Each structure stands twice: as C-alpha cells, then as structure tokens.
Amino acid sequence: MTRVLGIDPGTHRLGWAVIGGTKSKPHLLACDVLEFPQHTSSAEYLQKIHSFIDSLLLKYHPDKLGIEALFAQKNVKTAIQVAEARGVILFTFAARGYVWHELSPNTVKSAVAGAGNAGKAEVRRMVGLLLNLDTAQLLDDTTDALAVALAAQIL
C-alpha cells in the first residue's frame, strides 16, 4: 500500500492530490487546489506554498512524491514564477528528507492516458476511470495533480 503526493505547480493556483492503494488499484485520499488572489506578492505566496506543502507532508506521510516538471512557456515572467514555486516545493521536500520524481507533462499523459500527446479531456477521463471519481467538477489543476500522483505511483 503506497501513499503518493502529486503536485501541479503554478503561480497563483497549485494543484495537489494524495492517492493511496496499489498501482493496479489506486484510490483517492484527498485533493484540492491552493489558490491565491491575483495580486498576491511573491514573498507571500512562496511562504504560504512552503507552509502548505510542509503541512501536507506531515499530515499524509507520503511514500512517493511527484511533481510536474517545468515545460516551455511562452511567457517568461510566468515561467520564472512557476520555477520559483517549484524551487520552494522542492526545497520543502528536501528539508523533510524526501526524494521525488519530476515528471514531464508527456510522461504524465503517457502513464495515465497511454499517449504522451493526450489532451486534457482524455487525461481527465482516465483519471476519473482509474480512481472511480467524477472529475467534472474538479479544476484542471486538481486533475493534473491527480494525474501526476498516478504517474508517480507507477514509477
């Protein structure tokens, strides 16, 4: 029985999910988004990300951690902000002695939907099927974090 924390990092919305079970029979333990108002300062949201991720680690004691790797961004400012958020998350993992899997979007899509070029709708559908979960009301960030957790569980 493995417990996996999956993170979809973002600037003002961070998706997270904790799944349990086995590779062949995963189940949802918890998921949501950590969201900040649009004009939250970097100093404030980076500190809150650290505190929040630390609290998830202490609450769920995951056996595996997965985080989506930074992929090419057209907007340099957004890429820098996501990289800063990822840095805080990775620091928090390391400070608690964890190792983690950094998963490219294509790796996540391939693990969950069977194809690295799968669209958001197909990933959402497969996350729902794999976890026996209605994903219609979930934000994309939450669904993405669930997909990261499922992919990390397979590793």
TrEMBL record:
Active site: D8, E68, D141
Organism ancestry: Bacteria, Candidatus Collieribacteriota
Cofactor(s) the record lists: Mg(2+)
Binding site for Mg(2+) 1: D8, D141
Keywords: Cytoplasm, DNA damage, DNA recombination, DNA repair, DNA-binding, Endonuclease, Hydrolase, Magnesium, Metal-binding, Nuclease
Family statement: Belongs to the RuvC family.
GO molecular function, one term: magnesium ion binding
Gene3D superfamilies referenced in this protein's UniProt entry, alphabetically: Ribonuclease H-like superfamily/Ribonuclease H
Protein role: The RuvA-RuvB-RuvC complex processes Holliday junction (HJ) DNA during genetic recombination and DNA repair. Endonuclease that resolves HJ intermediates. Cleaves cruciform DNA by making single-stranded nicks across the HJ at symmetrical positions within the homologous arms, yielding a 5'-phosphate and a 3'-hydroxyl group; requires a central core of homology in the junction. The consensus cleavage sequence is 5'-(A/T)TT(C/G)-3'. Cleavage occurs on the 3'-side of the TT dinucleotide at the point of strand exchange.
Coiled-coil region list: none
PROSITE patterns in the record: RUVC (PS01321)
The keyword Transport is annotated on this UniProt entry: no
Listed name of the protein: Crossover junction endodeoxyribonuclease RuvC
GO CC aspect terms: cytoplasm; Holliday junction resolvase complex
Annotated InterPro entries: RNaseH-like_sf, RNaseH_sf, X-over_junc_endoDNase_Mg_BS, X-over_junc_endoDNase_RuvC
Reaction(s) catalysed by this chain's protein: Endonucleolytic cleavage at a junction such as a reciprocal single-stranded crossover between two homologous DNA duplexes (Holliday junction)
BP GO terms, sorted: DNA recombination; DNA repair
EC number(s) per entry: 3.1.21.10
Subunit organization: Homodimer which binds Holliday junction (HJ) DNA. The HJ becomes 2-fold symmetrical on binding to RuvC with unstacked arms; it has a different conformation from HJ DNA in complex with RuvA. In the full resolvosome a probable DNA-RuvA(4)-RuvB(12)-RuvC(2) complex forms which resolves the HJ.
Binding residue positions for Mg(2+) 2: E68
Organism: Candidatus Collierbacteria bacterium RIFOXYA2_FULL_46_10
Localization per record: Cytoplasm
Pfam family, one: RuvC
Co-factor binding comment: Binds 2 Mg(2+) ion per subunit.
